[in-house]
């Protein structure tokens, strides 16, 4: 079905649709929204850490999403959601090679035994050393063992940045994408890689069109064309690219789908307008853009929201009543952490009211993830402020938990 973006969509800020400027209408009178509160300290989250990645996943099967924090040059920690806050459950310690330069981790049940496992990618000190990625296989008692060597996914020379599990074939075993920064300072190669899971016992490297020096500032897995196969969105070093899975491998359809080849710091495929099709949300340093699915193989021109230091975003329903909202995470400008931004849905499918999230926050904004940690029907947003890939090494900031709910009021 053909879906068009019509003039008259209201946002607070600058709107560009198909390259045309649209006059903005004034927001309708509405009940004053609840304030956004940071309840991170009360909920038990770290108050001063470096950051690079945060993941939300129900690890123990209790219906509550737990949090994994990847603290750059520091510990990777799993916090269990108790329903009334978070408790530190596991700190992942590399006893095999002594490296802690983790950048990103992803969850999947690698051997399909009913327990989620964790794969983590590491840097290589600007491409000067050999290193070892980790595959933490969860044991029946809830402990983890690093079996990356046995499973053949060390990727010793890759400058690991982002990773994701996906399905490359029709078996139940999750396969793996590893995104690596480039170049190295020696003669070793550091391309992005794909690995096929062989019966839950090991992985095998395959070249499906993604094994190249391209970089990966972000990666998102989704079935964009609804053909039952996983596709891949990658923030490569030089451009945002969309790859669709075909019988012979992955095909770059970035231009065909109307996606501008600009460098993005983060991107995600989400059904923003709730029409059943995945839309494309991406952020650069200066703009967050929303591209709505327009036709069978095309995205519409973007809705643009100006920002000052765009780093990341997360999408969820923060007030539990008016559609999907967006938290935009901003980094530092001249050493000062710029206020993050909340785009609150106005109740329509593609209209948002812009609000600054005020309050002085140490560190530099990095990434965010949405989850309803207390199951009150409204999403909360975890925001990390430890600088990540776009800040200086050693910058620390709190892991915030932003809510409009009434938890502990």
Number of strands: 34
- Given the structure, what is the number of helices? 2
Shape: globular
Distance between the termini: 46 Å
Question: Largest sheet, described in full?
Answer: 4 strands, antiparallel
Low-confidence stretches: 1-29
Helix content: under 10%
Give me the side-by-side strand order of the main sheet. 3-34-33-32
Strand content: 35-45%
Rg is 21 Å
Specify the structural class: mainly beta
Average pLDDT number: 89
Task: Please provide a written account of the structure.
This protein is mainly β and 409 residues long. Helices cover 2% and strands 39% of the residues. It has helices at residues 40-43, 148-151; strands at residues 16-17, 20-21, 37-38, 53-57, 66-70, 76-81, 86-92, 102-108, 117-122, 134-138, 144-146, 159-166, 175-181, 193-198, 202-206, 219-222, 231-235, 240-246, 249-252, 266-270, 279-283, 287-291, 293-295, 298-299, 303-306, 310-316, 325-330, 332-333, 336-337, 340-345, 352-357, 368-371, 380-383, 400-403. The strands form ten sheets. Strands 3-34-33-32 form a four-stranded antiparallel sheet. It has a four-stranded antiparallel sheet with strand order 4-5-6-7, with no helix packed on it. A four-stranded antiparallel sheet has the order 8-9-10-11. The protein is globular, with a radius of gyration of 21 Å. It starts with 15 loop residues before the first strand and ends in a 6-residue tail after the last strand. The model is unreliable at 1-29 (pLDDT under 50).
